[in-house]
Amino acid sequence: MASIYKRGKTWTANVFIIQDGKRKRKTKSGFDTKTQANKWAIGVENQKLNHELSKKDGIISDMFDEWYEIFKEPQLETKSKAWYKAISQIIRKYWDNKKLSEITSADFQKLINEYGDNHVRSSVAHVKNIISAFVRYAVDEDFITKDFTRNAKTYGSKKSKDNDLKFLENDELENLIQSANESDTTTSHMILLAAYSGARYAEIAGLTKKDFDFKKNTININKSWQADDKAFKSTKTKTSNRIIDIPGDVMNLAKGWTFGQRYAFESLDGLPPSNKTVNKQLRRFLEQNGSKIITFHGLRHTHASYLLSKDIAIQYVSERLGHADVNITLSVYTHLLDKKRNLETKKALAELEKL
Asked: Are residues 106 and 28 in the same domain?
């Protein structure tokens, strides 16, 4: 990214580049105005994008950073940027001062294996996918001839939470809804809406009063809340933009809620309650009811699991959740609630006994 600043009476601009495998700053001073300095910096950035600067086999960590700054950083949100910066540090830890062409498939698999010793498999896969994207770019640009990440296998020794910890059973859900109904806090309203809609935290936090249609009993998911940047953002995918039907009695209850000026759900600071704050309230309700502890995102799993347990079509559940493909829904919600599973087992055995 370009850095432009005033030095004395003139302006100076410098831009990060890679030349002869080394990380350098290309600097030019003496501009009369900031606009002139910015124009020069944009020109250098365009040269980088058009591959007009000298790019040879260099230190992999420096080349990864340049790739990130040009192709990724401008489009990423704060949380995603943190991932790339963390992976940059991982690359420096394992391959400090190593050239891109010197990295082998064995080197990469060793990194994956050692990182996997202390992380869950999903995190390892994230590291693998980001480094693989950079390497594919390097192959496309003829920096190297072989994708050394292609045949690597992900491995993670730490276990993620089991599925049975991620959603509530029917009776637990009913108890939670009753508790949320009896409370008039903003976080309770968010919990109740999540249970009935299956919407993500960022989607509910991003709602405004205009997104509630009390005539049609729907909510309009058309944006989400970026807590790190304290701003609205687009939804996770295009299919995440959706209209969700909500039971009439719930919408009648919502008519009495006090909505904020900018956000439907606002704290005293004028911003939506944080994910941590909502989770504290959720945990409080669950502990009071003697239910298993889940996160706010677990309400999304609970919503989907409940509908599937009632034989609601998987295609409709997928649309309601805003999944891009029904196969995503199938892969995530292959489980059934215990009560439903036991019922299906009995039905299956009864039919088999007729043979």
From this structure: no
Domain residue limits at 13: 3-49
Number of folded domains in the chain? 3
Cα distances (Å, whole numbers) of residue 172 to 83, 144, 166, 299: 35, 55, 12, 11
How far CA 59 is from CA of 35, 53, 71, 101, 190, in Å, comes to 33, 16, 18, 9, 48
Helix (H/G/I), strand (E/B), else coil: 14: strand
Reported as half-sphere exposure (CB side, CA atoms, 13 A), residue 284 has a value of: 13
CA pair distance 337, 248, nearest whole angstrom: 26
Residues 336 and 240 placed together within one structural domain of the fold: yes
- State the sign of the Cα–Cα–Cα–Cα dihedral 230, 234, 240, 245: positive
- Integer-rounded Cα radius of gyration of the chain: 26
Written as one string, the DSSP assignment of 69-123 is: IIIIGGG--HHHHHHHHHHHHHHHHHSTT-BGGG--HHHHHHHHHHHHTTSBHHH
What's the whole-model pTM score?
A: 0.62
Distances (CA, A) of 291 to 171, 201, 286, 348: 9, 21, 5, 30
pLDDT < 70 positions in the chain: 1, 17-24, 45-56, 157-165, 331, 334-341
Residue 231's Cβ-side half-sphere holds a number of Cα atoms within 13 Å equal to 5
Q: What is the pLDDT of residues 159-209, one digit of tens each?
A: 655 544 478 989 999 999 999 999 999 999 999 999 999 999 999 999 999
Asked whether residue 188 falls in the same domain as residue 334, the answer is yes
Q: Are residues 195 and 336 in the same domain?
A: yes
d(CA 69, CA 193): 39
**20 — alpha (psi -120 to 50), left (phi > 0) or beta?**
left
